[in-house]
Amino acid sequence: MAKNNLKKAQYYRHPEQPSLIYNIKAPWEKVISKPPVWLSNKFPPLSAQKKFKFLGHRLISPIAIAAGPASGKIWTDFYFKMGFGMVIQKTRRTVPRKSNKEPNIAIVHQENPVSKPHLEDSLSASINPKAWENYKSMTNSFGNPSSDILTWAKELPEQRKVMKDGQILTCSVTATTPEDRQGHSADAQIIETASDLLIGATAAVLGGADIIELNLACPNVTENPQEGEMFQNIKLVNYVLSEFKRRFPKVPVGVKFGVFKSKEQMKKVFYAAGDNLNYVSGINALKMTVLAIDGSDILPGRRTSGVCGIADQEIALEHTKWAAEIREEEGLKYEILGGGGIIEPQDVDKFLNTGADMVQIAAAVLANPLLAYEYRLMKS
Ligand SMILES: Cc1cc2nc3c(=O)[nH]c(=O)nc-3n(C[C@H](O)[C@H](O)[C@H](O)COP(=O)(O)O)c2cc1C
Q1: Can you give the pTM of this predicted structure?
Q2: Is 342 in the pocket of ligand 1 (CB under 6 A)?
Q3: Confidence grade of residue 225 (pLDDT, cut at 50, 70, 90)
Q4: How far is the CA of 124 from the centre of ligand 1 (A)?
């Protein structure tokens, strides 16, 4: 027994639990149609206290499941039952898209954070889930797969049913930009992209999502790589947020960002968004070259993919610091959902102490879904 009569985390973990709850060799659509591989089938008790706050909600944990590890009711239920304060539904689209070909996840042989000058380096990886235990980095490449909008919007109210007091559901949406728009002006493209984001966001609001996250930074959309850089487009961010707020003034909305070239560039985007930006969310996975040890493709047809886990921590903390400084310097009001490279409960405090209001975790929860509980134990 730990303090407060809470059992040790290992009580909830089967001795033969595999390294990951996600079968990285199977196609994504198949993986999410079944529950996570959690052999014990045991879940820790949820906290009765709502000690944490995010965007006006009082929450049982300051830890969110980042957009990614949870897609559909089976998987969002699992993380709610594990006691996370917020679960972000993996990014949805208005237009159906299949997942990139499996494998979509590989373990990256990188045990330390990557620093900015090394973003152009090539990393090695393997499809061996056990390697996670040594390295704590992975890469992912799904391409923001999505069912059609009607199917996922109808599922959102079902996803809410398992939530307890002190837990909230966020839905991440992205835009699907048509492939050939060469004749169109930049402004026309912005309006078109923003309109698509607004359709997705509207469906998510009507489905009952508490918060909307605009994923403007996916590193893995092979047919439209510019979708990964939308967060840098000041006009787009400004326009889509103001149009969202015109319709849903009371629904909090945030933007998922990737690597900014500089603090100055981040400031330009966040400042232009002004009070329409309720929170900033980062950092998305780092777009890097990741290959098999022999130099061949590790993820078929994709030489670059989104590196996450410990590899992200240094850049993620720097971005959290910048976001907190900019908020202070410019008198802005957004909250910060920080993360990227959180592996251990202690890492949560690194982000909270750097200015994040709440944190998010993706890669590490695929190995250790007890992280919210472990953080609670650490603090009790
Ligand atoms: C399996 C997996 C799927 C992901 N899918 C998405 C996604 O759909 N949308 C998104 O914004 N980010 C996605 N991400 C990125 C995470 O939300 C997060 O920003 C990134 O992985 C860094 O955090 P981490 O180091 O805790 O993994 C995904 C990450 C993983 C590991």
Answers
A1: 0.98
A2: yes
A3: confident
A4: 19
User: Where does the chain show beta strands of DSSP type E?
Assistant: 52-54, 57-59, 63-65, 86-92, 105-108, 122-126, 137-140, 168-173, 211-215, 253-256, 279-282, 286-292, 304-309, 335-339, 358-361
pLDDT given at position 1: 52
Angle of helix 149-160 relative to helix 186-206, nearest 10 degrees? 40
Q: Is the CB of 103 under 6 A from ligand 1?
A: no
pLDDT at 179: 72
pLDDT tens sequence across 173-209: 999 987 766 678 889 999 999 999 999 999 999 999 9
User: What pLDDT sits at residue 3?
Assistant: 55
Q: Which CATH number fits domain 3-13+20-176+187-379: 3.10.310.20, 3.20.20.70, 3.30.1370.10, 3.30.390.50?
A: 3.20.20.70
How far from 319 is each of 165, 214, 271, 326, 356, CA to CA, in Å? Answer: 31, 18, 15, 10, 10
- From the CB of 256, is ligand 1 less than 6 Å away? yes
**139 alpha carbon to ligand 1 midpoint, in Å?**
9
